[in-house]
Amino acid sequence: MKAWAxxxxxxxxxxxxxxxxxxxxxxxxxVIPNFWGGIGSNTTGYVxxxxxxxxxxxxxxxxxxxxxxxxxxxxxxxxxxxxxxxQLTSIQPGDTITYTAWLMTTASSERDxxxxxxxxxxxxFYGPNGRICEIHTSNGETSYPNYPSTAAVTVxxxxxxxxxxxxxxxxxxxxxxxxxxxxxxGQQVVPTGFIPWICGYSNSWPGGSPENGTVYATNTQIYIxxxxxxxxxxxxxxxxxxxxSVSNVVxxxxxxxxxxxxxxxxxxxxGFNLPVNITVRNSGNVSExxxxxxxANSTSICRVALCLNSSASGxxxxxxxxxxxxxxxxxxxASVIPLGExxxxxxxxxxxxxxxxxxxxxxxxxxxxxxxxxxxxxxxxACCTRGTYNPSIDFNHDGKxxxxxxxxxxxxxxxxxxx
Length: 419
Fold this sequence. Notes:
- With about 425 residues, this protein is mainly beta.
- The chain has three domains: about 55-225, Sandwich (Jelly Rolls); about 250-355, Sandwich (Immunoglobulin-like), CATH 2.60.40; about 370-419, no CATH class.
- Helices cover about 10% and strands about 35% of the residues.
- It has helices at about 75, 370-385, 405-419; strands at about 55-60, 60-65, 80-85, 90, 95-105, 120-125, 130-135, 155, 165-170, 175, 190, 195-200, 215-225, 250-255, 260, 265-270, 275-280, 290-295, 300-310, 310-320, 330-340, 345-355.
- The strands form five sheets. Strands 3, 4, 6, 7, 8 and 12 form a six-stranded antiparallel sheet that branches. Strands 15-16-22-21-18-19 form a six-stranded mixed sheet, with no helix packed on it. The chain has a five-stranded antiparallel sheet with strand order 1-2-13-5-9, with no helix packed on it.
- The relative contact order is 0.16.
- The model is unreliable at about 1-25, about 40-45, about 75-80, about 135-150 and about 230-245 (pLDDT under 50).
């Protein structure tokens, strides 16, 4: 990726999904940290362990790569002040590439609130002689192929939560070279490989102070569904899009793991994570890329791509951050749309109703009162005397009950009655 280039693309973004589990037969090419030591167009230090891309660090409960600003970018007068390149990976036209990662950003030191600035993923295409171009949505460069929207989406500075970004598309027969690679600008070149990257972008250069916000990356995954049956996901061929109105890819099961149940209903306190597990089955004879959308009532809370081999199932383990949902009851449902079956109706499935309630409500009555205080005291005492762990009073989610949780409950109690 060129150091000055504007942010590329990310097409499936959610601030709630953390760890999907893809079918075991699929091969993830982008395993952290070994994969991220590439030979991209920016070769100055864009590998793990160079002092600017640090691994391992623990952020928000995840083992991650920390991407700090490289002071060398000031020499380039660069707006792109951090990047991490992967390995050069072989592909050919017709292959389906699915690239997904979880990113998190700290606040911008330059108070950069531009929604197009922050962290993103993308890739550069390579031919036999070197770099061709990058996946890009503006500045006259390569448009994002085979996707209905070309709007660039980023994980803005200051998210503070893990956010998933995903790219999934079929490799074209050729790409137009840009002016900064190994080919003449405008030349059509057959791609033979690509280098994926993770990038942080700000408005700090040129002519300004350096951007010292930090980008974190975890759980990077790249899958290749080959056009000719070699390498990548499986030995299955990619078939032309199906014209059937009945999909081969369906959501067969969905389960919730609430914090507690009361009155026959599931409850999660606001700010606690809600695990949702979705099983998706592909009954067809070719591999498929399925786009899965998760909803709380009509609010979209997750969008992600999942690769499935033929006649195989995959389980998507979603970790939903409930802090963005107002207190109330929600019907949790999922919709699955296969990329290769444009005429098929989405497969939908419902998990039931879950109540998102106030932090500190331990009885499911959407209140925080003396009953909850007495329950907290009883559970706190049980933990101290018998080691009994109740996750609903672990307010800082560190796997133990201690004085920090007591003060958190007091804070939640006061917040409820002062609101």
